[in-house]
């Protein structure tokens, strides 16, 4: 790897009293008064049920959409348009089916004007680091869903983004692949330390990966609580069996119960029974 | 060039069924003793094709040229129109209903009129070919350009692609399979267009040969012309399919769909 040659720049992100209304025949309020910060080099998850505006926050931070009220700041400057220095991963891999795995990763290098051989070297390193060595020339349709999503993650990283925006990137994968990718992402994050904003509806996934979990409830989406996750890194999957992890899980479960999003008649007291 | 085992198997199946049809044809003629001017046997037709080889080749070349020329003109007109209707909302809402509406007009019926106006030269033939080949190209290209995943648009924006770059890097290549589906339909229709235009008014071409042979009740020659016509159609279609194979390599059939999983 070439990490010693490169010190990644990272950005801080701040949402200050952000609201968003979709104009239309029936105007829908997607977000109401959302404030949160992602300190430079931190991993922050946005956790909540479907339809609570999680993905909307991501598109605001990416500059793909503008808020109706409030400010979205990147390094203390208001975001005016698409943030091309960011890397983005979507729920679907959205790969170009006519390009090989390597070509897909290099698309982002080309778009950022990176010299060709430099881009190719980085792309190959990244594919190697996510276990895709030997698949550089495979077309997307020749790869499994998990492998495609790894390619998409490499594409988001190849230009050394100052922030990584991930919109439920593992939601379409099976549980085991999902765990593997979470571990891989944790490792990549430790190595690069870009600011990450990660949207998910999985409580364990959010705790496992994050420095901070923003719990949202919905319609219109509001921040219910922001929880700092104080678990040592690197984290192994077995950390999910630790008492501290279980404590975070039940804390978040209680938040969803209070919001009326979850009903548990038995009123159980001990922790790690949450849906994965 | 590696041709997959599956392609060989398919080719063998086509060949076998073609031979079976000829065999049945021959048996039918033999067993029923049907008159030659009603249905000549395949042996007669083949020997006639051999005798008339030069004529058949000349007429085939004429029809092939009209078809290919009309096809190319169709592509030249249809593709920019499709791009325009994809990129401009106004052009789309104005043009697309027009295109779909015009598609329902039986364009073959225009052929006699064109001969009256334009005479017996190659021009009316090319125009008829364009009229029939144009629509599938436009419609399929538009469908191809427009079916872009919304997240693909978001990806393009975050990569800083402007409209031109997005179109060249993403919309166009991802529309190619759909475009080629349209081109294949258009090519078969183009040949039909050329033949019909020749029926209406021509002094050369396979359509003319077919018509004059029927008029003289020369069924053997009619069948020879029909077979030449079929072979021409197959060749033109194969040419488009080959071009697709070259231009759209990522959709090629492979024996191994998934090379491995991890």
Walk me through the topology.
The complex is a heterodimer of chains A (276) and B (262).
Chain A: E1 13-22, E2 28-38, E3 43-47, H1 54-61, E4 69-74, E5 77-78, E6 86-89, H2 101-111, H3 116-129, H4 145-157, E7 163-167, H5 175-192, E8 195-200, H6 203-209, E9 212-217, E10 222-228, H7 243-258
Parallel strand pairs in A: 3-8, 3-9, 6-7, 7-8
Antiparallel strand pairs in A: 1-2, 1-4, 4-5, 9-10
Helix pairs in contact in A: 2-3, 2-4, 6-7
Chain B: H1 5-32, H2 42-51, H3 53-87, H4 89-103, H5 111-118, H6 122-146, H7 150-158, H8 163-200, H9 206-215, H10 219-247
What portion of residues of chain A is helical? 25-40%
Poorly predicted segments of chain A: 1-7, 270-276
- The radius of gyration over CA of chain A amounts to 19 Å
- End-to-end CA span of chain A: 34 Å
CATH homologous superfamily placement of the largest domain in chain B: MetI-like
Amount of beta strand of chain A: 15-25%
Overall mean pLDDT of chain B? 89
If you had to describe this structure to a student in words, what would you say it looks like?
- The complex is a heterodimer of chains A (276) and B (262).
- Chain A has 276 residues and is of the alpha/beta class.
- Helices cover 32% and strands 22% of the residues of chain A.
- In chain A, the strands form two sheets. A six-stranded mixed beta sheet of chain A has the order 6-7-8-3-9-10, with helices on both faces. In chain A, strands 2-1-4-5 form a four-stranded antiparallel beta sheet, covered by helices on one side.
- Residues 1-7 and 270-276 of chain A have low confidence and may be disordered.
- Chain B has ten helices and no strands.
- Chain B has two domains: 1-33; 38-250, Orthogonal Bundle (MetI-like fold).
- With 262 residues, chain B is mainly alpha-helical.
- Chain B starts with a helix and ends in a 15-residue tail after the last helix.
- Classes of the chains: A alpha/beta (276), B mainly alpha (262).
Provide a brief overview of the structure:
With 276 residues, chain A is an alpha/beta fold. Chain A has helices at 54-61, 101-111, 116-129, 145-157, 175-192, 203-209, 243-258, and strands at residues 13-22, 28-38, 43-47, 69-74, 77-78, 86-89, 163-167, 195-200, 212-217, 222-228.
């Amino acid at each position: 790897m070439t990490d010693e040659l490169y010190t990644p720049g990272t950005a801080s992100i701040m949402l200050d009293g952000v609201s968003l209304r979709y104009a239309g025949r029936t105007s829908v309020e997607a977000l109401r008064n959302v404030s949160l910060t992602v300190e430079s080099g931190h991993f922050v998850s946005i956790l909540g049920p479907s339809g609570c505006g999680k993905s909307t926050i991501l598109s605001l931070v990416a500059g793909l959409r503008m808020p109706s009220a409030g400010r979205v700041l990147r390094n203390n400057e208001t975001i005016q348009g698409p943030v091309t220095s960011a890397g983005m991963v979507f729920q679907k891999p959205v790969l170009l089916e006519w390009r090989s795995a390597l070509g897909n990763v290099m698309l982002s290098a080309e778009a950022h004007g990176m010299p060709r051989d430099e881009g190719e070297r980085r792309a190959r390193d990244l594919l190697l680091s996510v276990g895709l060595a030997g698949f550089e020339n495979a077309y997307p349709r020749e790869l499994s869903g998990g492998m495609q999503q790894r390619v998409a993650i490499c594409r988001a990283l190849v230009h050394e983004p100052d922030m990584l925006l991930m919109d439920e990137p593992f939601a379409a994968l099976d549980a085991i692949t999902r765990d593997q990718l979470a571990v891989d992402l944790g490792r990549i994050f430790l190595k690069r330390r870009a600011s990450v904003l990660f949207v998910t509806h999985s409580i364990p996934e959010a705790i496992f990966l994050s420095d901070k979990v923003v719990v949202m409830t919905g319609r219109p989406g509001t921040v219910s609580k922001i929880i700092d996750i104080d678990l040592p890194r690197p984290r192994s999957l077995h950390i999910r069996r630790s008492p501290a992890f279980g404590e975070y899980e039940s804390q978040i479960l209680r938040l969803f119960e209070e919001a009326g999003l979850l009903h548990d008649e038995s009123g159980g007291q001990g922790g790690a029974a949450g849906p994965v | 060039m590696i041709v997959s085992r599956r392609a060989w198997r398919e080719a063998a199946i086509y060949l076998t069924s073609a031979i079976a049809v000829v065999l049945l044809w021959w048996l039918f003629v033999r067993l029923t003793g049907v008159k030659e001017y009603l249905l000549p046997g395949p042996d007669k037709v083949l020997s006639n094709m051999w005798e008339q080889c030069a004529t058949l080749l000349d007429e085939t070349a004429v029809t092939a040229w009209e078809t290919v020329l009309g096809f190319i003109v169709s592509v030249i007109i249809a593709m920019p129109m499709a791009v325009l209707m994809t990129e401009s909302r106004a052009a789309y809402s104005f043009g697309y209903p027009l295109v779909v509406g015009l598609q329902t007009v039986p364009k073959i019926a225009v052929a006699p009129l064109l001969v009256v106006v334009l005479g017996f030269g190659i021009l009316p033939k090319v125009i008829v070919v364009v009229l029939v080949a144009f629509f599938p190209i436009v419609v399929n290209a538009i469908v191809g350009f427009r079916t872009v995943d919304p997240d693909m648009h978001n990806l393009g924006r975050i990569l800083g692609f402007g409209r031109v770059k997005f179109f060249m890097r993403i919309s166009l290549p991802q529309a190619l399979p759909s475009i080629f589906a349209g081109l294949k339909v258009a090519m078969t229709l183009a040949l039909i267009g050329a033949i019909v235009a020749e029926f209406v008014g021509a002094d050369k071409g396979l359509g003319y040969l077919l018509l004059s042979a029927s008029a003289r009740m020369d069924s053997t020659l009619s069948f020879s012309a029909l077979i030449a016509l079929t072979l021409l159609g197959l060749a033109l279609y194969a040419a488009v399919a080959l071009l697709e194979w070259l231009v759209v390599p990522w959709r090629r059939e492979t024996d191994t769909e998934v090379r491995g999983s991890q």
